[in-house]
Amino acid sequence: MTDARAQLRYPTAHRDDIVEDLHGRQVADPYRWLEDPADPRTVAWSATQDQLARTWLDALPGRETVAERMRELMSAGSVSAPTWRAGRAFFTRREPDQEFPVLWVRERDGSERVLLDVSALDPSGLTTLDSWSPSLEGDRLAYQISVGGDEESLLHVLDVATGELVEGPIDRCRYSTISWLPGGEEFFYVRRLAPELVPEGEEQFHRRVWRHRVGSDPDADDVLVLGEGLDPTYYYGTRVSRDGRWLVVEGSPGTARRDSVWIADLSAGGAVPDLRQVVDTSDGYRVGAWVERDGRLYVMTTRDAPRWRLCVADPQRPEPEHWTELIAEQPDSVLEAVRWFDSGDGDPQLVVLRTRHAVSEVTLHDPATGHQTGEVPLPGTGQVTALTTVDEHTDHDRDRLWIGWTDFATPPCVHAYSHRTGQVALEQRAPGTVELPAVHTQQVTYRSLDGTPVRMFLLSPVAAPDRPRPALMTGYGGFSLSREPGYTPSALTWVAAGGVWALPSLRGGGEEGEEWHEAGMRARKQNTFDDFHAAAQHLIDEGWTTSDQLGISGGSNGGLLVGAALTQRPDLYRAVVCSAPLLDMVRYERFLLGRTWNDEYGTAEDPEELGWLLSYSPYHNVVEQTDYPSVLFTVFESDTRVDPNHARKMCAALQHATSSDPAKRPVLLRRETEVGHAARSVSRTVGLATDQLAFLAEATGLGLD
């Protein structure tokens, strides 16, 4: 250990005597001043934390080994399944030496060319491609980019043939879908109101659905379609049928898992569609709806089916009482997606994607009856990332289904299924060549505190426990999001060094459907943490690891997870990496997108719900003179979802409270600027993973050199 690390001293952080009476509860908040990044005290404190973190992290053994291994594994690159438009195929590919995926187009003659490379637009590496959508004719492309991690999404349109910009940027398009009308002259999209039109502090909300004509002034000429008078936190998605007749709009308040749906017949004419509401959020279920090529309204829903089912209806009679079930809910798998498949022989099929305990399965079904007609053999135990087929304006490859594929040890690639042969073959592998470590992958089942069976993925260098090894466990458990098998260079780096890596499917996630989600939200959020603690205990009981060799990591809602884990069971974990976390659950609604998450967690404005939040809020459950594990907070100053003040306040609280020797179990804060919550360059990814893995390895005894 270097002298500098041995002499690690935390900066003094003033503790204010702020104690608020909230619904009769006395709630202390001694580090509220750290919420303000511009406060001179915050600036000085943060600068000292930067120095402390770099002093510790730069001296960690094995850093270069981790960085080199991560660079090698990331050099595999990636390729996506094609999106077909009138014979043109659009796809992304990242070569081994590229920082970001590049958007390509394959022409009708088979030639390929780069259509959009954000690194060429901005060599600084600060610009990311958020989304893209070609017109139905394949001659125009709408794309959205953001800079410095802010995810604000500037919308542009380019000419596919020439690559020239047709219009843009149009600002305030964060999280916007693009739904082209036939002809490529108009599309429906989502844009926020201008800041001067909304109350102060609500600039990130107040989205509206607009109809836009390419080349017109969006501020003066766009036609308002939906959003006026509705909840300002609504997120919207739009879909237009292939024939341009039907517009379907879905909306939900914040991240609430209940939807509103509207439909309009565009053949009626007029610039403003006459939207007819079909479902309201007060009905309390999820809906994904679209009008398919056969002219029917397809409805994927959790209505009477927490694992989802598929219904159909006449779009002119779209109300739920007219829905007819086509594909029923299954008791042990979750319906994820449905695609129309021409199949090339005049016998169209529906391609149905399900996940069974977070593992993908694909089957074929008769569109008329819903009966299963076949099964698509997948490459292994992994994740289907995309299912695409040619459109009705493409003459060739009508019998082929393209499958985006990955698993824990397979970089994103593309397979193709032939309906004629019934076989699946590798279509495009990731462009780089890497040497993968020997890794055994398995899914095990353990029981949580209340006896609920929970499944967990394990990656290890041996098939069965041979001795206790340093282990790294991660998880999420929130917002009905599922953690499925996917290429994970950080996990492979850990296993290559001899460690065990674990991913439990916690309640609060979507791995087992909406009931699984609801069992880990609001008043039942503690189930998520209990599942995590039980997973750790299972690894110990089975002989995979010990508490002194167990590190945990999580980001965003997963940061809340590991924050609660370290405060509830500091004895169970040796080291914690807590990234972009939610940690002050009393005040989280006051910052950035926080108010859109109260359906998931509850609100401090309600006395009962405040009790839920205080019961596990990491910041409020820090106890003085506790032997806390090593903790590394990693935050991103351009994060527009989770405010970095959560980590600042928690870091100060832990540094004050811990009885652990800072030279042996430090509490550190690592900051990055000009990067946000989501997409990041390869070099930034490698840099972050190097610090995180080296920190965990040093604490748990994993030898990296």
From TrEMBL:
PANTHER family: PROLYL ENDOPEPTIDASE. It comes from the Bacteria. Belongs to the peptidase S9A family. It catalyses: Hydrolysis of Pro-|-Xaa >> Ala-|-Xaa in oligopeptides. Residues 11-425 form the Peptidase S9A N-terminal domain. Gene3D superfamilies: alpha/beta hydrolase, Prolyl oligopeptidase, N-terminal domain. GO terms for molecular function: oligopeptidase activity; serine-type endopeptidase activity. This is prolyl oligopeptidase. The lineage of its organism: Bacteria, Bacillati, Actinomycetota, Actinomycetes, Pseudonocardiales.
